[in-house]
Amino acid sequence: MSSKRELIEPTPGDKRYVRRDDQGRFKEVDDVGRSLSQDQKRKAEHDAGKGQGDRGDHKE
Questions:
Q1: With contact defined as beta carbons under 8 Å apart, do 32 and 38 qualify?
Q2: Cβ 36 vs Cβ 51: under 8 Å
Q3: What is the DSSP string of 1-45?
Q4: Which of 2, 16, 27, 56 could cysteine-pair with 48, CB 3.0–4.6 Å?
């Protein structure tokens, strides 16, 4: 299973979701605004687990 995504803010106003590999290095980096807008445009087929919001649907 992949790591949970983590919210970081390297500079004020620049929030990003990141995933880390086993050594703690960044594996994936996504801008928060773009990530949220793309989530709204698509409907996933599977339910996402906790911390995996970019990889499936959420129950409403």
A1: no
A2: no
A3: -PPPPEEEEEETTEEEEEEE-TTS-EEEEEEHHHHHHHHHH---S
A4: 56
- For 41-51, b where at least 16 C-beta lie within 10 A, e where not — what string? eeeeeeeeeee
Cα dihedral 50→60→57→3 (10° resolution): -10
Please provide residue 39's backbone torsions phi and psi, each rounded to the nearest 5 degrees.
-60, -40
Q: Give residue limits of the domains in the chain.
A: 1-41
pLDDT at 44: 67
Matching residue, tokens 């990003």: 16
Mean pLDDT per block of 10 residues along the chain (60 residues) reads 80 88 87 74 72 62
**Contact of 55 with 4, CB cutoff 8 Å:** no
